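=== RUN LOG ===
request id: a7f3
mode: sequence -> structure
chains: 1
length: 94
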Amino acid sequence: MFGIGLPELVLIFIIALLVIGPEKLPEVARTLGRTLGEFKRIADEMKQTITAEMQEEINRPYRPSKREEPPPLPAERNPEIKSPEEIKNDGMPG
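=== RESULT ===
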């Protein structure tokens, strides 16, 4: 459990008996048991949901995303557009 052994459980039971009293102790224990059971059920449901989602993701076929077209090669570019070197050389006498 939580690293609690039999001596610790007996001590907790004795303290609860003194604090709560023998009349209400069964009712409190029943409520505590129901609450812990509810937490366990919720945790199991979450675990099953996460496992199912992971399994669905694993079984989904791989579809690479569509890639954009690469920029045109220098030989294919528009002749009206000048490169930085051409602009630089146009302004220089030479």
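=== NOTES ===
The CA atoms of residues 50 and 81 lie 55 Å apart.
The radius of gyration is 37 Å.
=== END ===
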